[in-house]
Amino acid sequence: MRIGLVIRNVAWCRQTTHLNHFSQRYASTTATQLSDADQARLFRQRNIGVSAHIDSGKTTLTERILFYTGRINAIHEVRGKDNVGAKMDSMDLEREKGITIQSAATFCDWNTKNPISGEKESYSINIIDTPGHVDFTIEVERALRVLDGAILVLCAVSGVQSQTITVDRQMRRYNVPRISFINKMDRPGANPARVIQQIRQKLRMPAAAVQVPIGAEDEFKGVVDLVRWKAIYNSGHKGVEIVEEDEIPATVLQEAQDRRAELIEQLAEVDETISDAFLEDGEITTEMLVGAIRRATIARKFTPVFLGSAVKNTAVQPLLDGVCSYLPTPSDAATSALDLSKPSGEQAVDLVPAAEAPLVALAFKLEEGRYGQLTYMRVYQGSIKKGGWIWHAKTGKRVKVPRLVRMHSDDMEDIETIGPGEICAIFGIECASGDTFTDGQSSLSMSSMFVPDPVISLSIKPESGTETPNFSKALNRFKKEDPTFRVHVDPESQETIISGMGELHLEIYAERMKREYGVPCVTGKPQVAFRETIQGPAKFNYTHKKQTGGAGQFARVIGGIEPEPRDPETGKDVVFENLVMSGNVPSNYIPAVEKGFLEALEKGSLAGCPVSGVRLVLEDGAFHAVDSSELAFRLATIGAFREAYKNASPVILEPIMTVEITAPVEFQGNIIGGINQRRGTIIDTEVRDDEFTLIADVSLNDMFGYSSALRGATQGKGEFSMEYKEHQPVLPHVQKEMADAYRKKMDSKNK
Ligand SMILES: Nc1nc2c(ncn2[C@@H]2O[C@H](COP(=O)(O)OP(=O)(O)OP(=O)(O)O)[C@@H](O)[C@H]2O)c(=O)[nH]1
Fold first, then answer.
1. Mean pLDDT, residues 508-532 taken together
2. What angle do CA 77, 79, 83 make, to 5 degrees?
3. Nearest Cα to 301, choosing from 206, 377, 383, 219?
């Protein structure tokens, strides 16, 4: 019986401290630049996010974390009877709707016991609570971009849901290691083993429980820590006290032994130390387990799974211990920047979170606070001091730091200085979301963030009928805060059109317009944000010539356009490339050519939709000493693009959504019928107890009115969520209809 032996033989309390263990690790990597003070500080620092599918309990969990760490004195529930709302849902709208709209940052200190030595240790944790709604996906993107680790929250009943898959993708994109927390263990039907299986299969992430539950559903009382072999219970007001017992209750002993064996087996697959010991039937100690879980988690080869019930205040503290034990320090998380003074391909530079290194900080979020513009920054290396200077990397502008604060949702704490690996907010500096700040000496810049395309648009105007300064001020503000929110004026109807990630996204901005800027608005019917693109290459050789008495216009551009795939990291799919060496197009006219190209992309000639996925290569051209101008080159490029576009097999693209529907199993037939009617492609179906779940890809255009259709088809018992998947070509007959309608509209306009 190897399992029994393993458990009995574990040497639980080796005296090697955590700190020693990890300083050795730093020593091998970055010791030359990290001072002892840096190492000691970073070792106790965690920057984490809490992300999950909608309604999994992220905010409820964060509220407990804040309470147990002493950041707040009382717990208020999301949609609680006391009407206060959770600390992290600080916007009125969030509290009213019971959903998180903006990510909120906070920090806390957690005192934990070293799992190996048992010594007391204090950690500083920056936490970002992110929204679950796909409409606010950019908030998740930017949070993950600046975090070193994350807690992936899952519901014990629903398991891996569609948005869990999105969050998983985002975590992979930014190389964010995660620990998993199966919440809602108090719910009837809670089944952590099934959820772990889903993490392995659906997220393709090796996973194993590091705890087993003591009691189930209503009787859920605590957990067994499989690493330290302790039973852990909560007691006292709101579960504030932790009671640890060496004796594992007999009812769960066998289960705990089996799961511990499973944990070791899973770790043996991803960690050499454990696999060697496992193969040799050797002793596996707590120290070895802690080390292996930490290494495998940071290498993103494994996720340890914790269990609990946030709402019932059970087993949240052990999760916090897990954050400290298994998630990376800022120096474990390798971060790189681009050195723009070097040729492309050689620009990547590893950043070192040393206080004395040159400053590199990223503005990842802007917010209009009570006291003016607030810019959230992650400092990667170097420090920022109150009253000191920082430099905007793109513009080279020097900016004074008037006030430096640490955020605690909508409250703040003034600080004098902030070091590397930390998150802070600065008042009164001008920049956009995603900008880098430096010490003015280096040419370092962080790479840009992935920004998805908008999927939905609607017209908006003030109720009063006239566009007040506040109307444009609000739109500009929102645009700057949120890169997925776009605004343009339709040249034909002269209407202001806003585009975003979903109806809720745009609805929230219309509501904020009224509440924050005093401009009640009326909005038009939501329209799908169609796009156009090309499927093949085409050449151009175009001369723009105009002779009207006075100075003429002359410009000639030669080159081609071709499809440009989307950069998976930045989302960029429009590229301008200049190959002109001869001076046939003087260099001062090149920016005008690029401008003309970008202008031509605003409206495709197929159906008047924005064009994406195109590279324009300028190969040659001609100019005239007197008649050439920026205007002439811009117009020549627009003409050239339109000429080539016709021959490049243009198509209209529409947003395709991944839709997840859950309803009682008796409505299965109705739901499948409804999705087929909407020409959806069914990806997956699952029947679990009495519940049926279907995942399908459906065009957004076919999803309008689905809420009421689903309500009708399931007697109000069905629920659905959807998220943007990709843009795909519309069916040929739809393309023809749209192109004909656009041509007709243009013809009548030109008459
Ligand atoms: N039964 C049970 N319900 C819970 C638990 N945790 C949270 N809830 C409930 O689940 C609902 C959603 O909780 P939130 O904390 O708002 O979830 P969220 O993930 O932050 O939601 P969004 O930010 O809107 O995605 C609320 O009604 C909570 O009371 C839990 O452990 N058990």
1. 89
2. 85
3. 206
Q: How far is the CA of 154 from the centre of ligand 1 (A)?
A: 10
Same fold, 38-326 and 336-446: no
pLDDT of 710 strictly over 80: yes
What is the 709 CA–ligand 1 centroid distance (Å)?
26
Structure tokens at 745: 């509209």
> How far is CA 428 from its chain centroid?
26
Pocket test for ligand 1, best of 50, 56, 59, 60 (most atoms within 8 A of CB): 60
In three-state form (DSSP H/G/I as H, E/B as E, the rest C), the secondary structure along 288-325 is HHHHHHHHHHHCCCCEEEEECECCCCECCHHHHHHHHH
How far is the centre of ligand 1, averaged over its atoms, from the C-alpha of 303 (Å)?
A: 22
**How many angstroms separate the CA atoms of 94 and 631, rounded?**
48
Q: Is the pLDDT of residue 309 over 70?
A: yes
Burial of 550 (0-12, 13-18, 19+ CB in 10 A): exposed
Angle at 149 between CA 110 and CA 448, to 5 degrees: 130
What SS3 state is found at 2? helix
Give residue 51 CA to ligand 1 midpoint distance, Å. 12
Pocket probe mutation, ligand 1, options 53, 54, 59, max atoms within 8 Å of Cβ: 59
Q: How far apart are alpha carbons 98 and 86 in whole angstroms?
A: 9
What is the DSSP code string of 13-79? T----HHHHHHHHHHHHTTTT--HHHHHHHHTEEEEEEEESTTSSHHHHHHHHHHHTTS-SS---TT
> Which of the listed CATH numbers 3.40.50.300, 3.40.50.80, 3.40.605.10, 2.30.30.40 matches domain 38-326?
3.40.50.300
Residue type, 202: K
Third-level CATH fold of 459-524? Alpha-Beta Plaits (3.30.70)
Q: Which atom from ligand 1 is nearest to the alpha carbon of 132? A: 25
Average confidence (pLDDT) over 238-265: 93
Mean pLDDT throughout 651-679?
92
Ligand 1 pocket, CB under 6 A: 52, 54-60, 77-79, 98-100, 131-133, 183-184, 186-187, 309-312
Region 531-648: CATH code: 3.30.230.10
Closest residue CA from atom 11 of ligand 1: 55
pLDDT mean across residues, the chain: 85
CATH architecture of 336-446: Beta Barrel (2.40)
85 marked ligand binding residue = no
pLDDT at residue 232 is higher than 90 = yes
Tokens 């959504």 belong to which residue? 657
- What ipTM goes with this model? 0.97
Residue 177 reports pLDDT greater than 60: yes
**Distance separating alpha carbons of residues 611 and 141, to the nearest angstrom:** 24
Q: Whose CA is nearest to atom 2 of ligand 1?
A: 184
Please give the Cα distance from 337 to 717 (Å, whole number).
Answer: 49
Q: How many CA atoms lie within 13 A of 38 on its CB side?
A: 24
The residues facing 223 across adjacent strands are: 213, 232
CATH class (in words) of the domain with range 653-733: alpha beta
Domains of the chain, by residue range, sit at 38-326, 336-446, 459-524, 531-648, 653-733
CA-closest candidate to residue 47, choices 336, 239, 385, 332: 332
Distance (Å) from CA 79 to ligand 1 centroid: 9
pLDDT at residue 21 greater than cutoff 90: no
pLDDT attached to residue 81: 54
Atom of ligand 1 nearest to the CA of 62: 15
- Residue 465 has what DSSP assignment? S
What H or E segment, with its residue span, contains residue 329?
A: none
What mean pLDDT is predicted for residues 106-134? 82
Query: Cβ(137)–Cβ(723) under 8 Å?
Result: yes
Contact 351, 336 (CB under 8 A): yes
Check whether 546 has a pLDDT greater than 50.
yes
β-strands 456-462, 444-445 pairing: unpaired
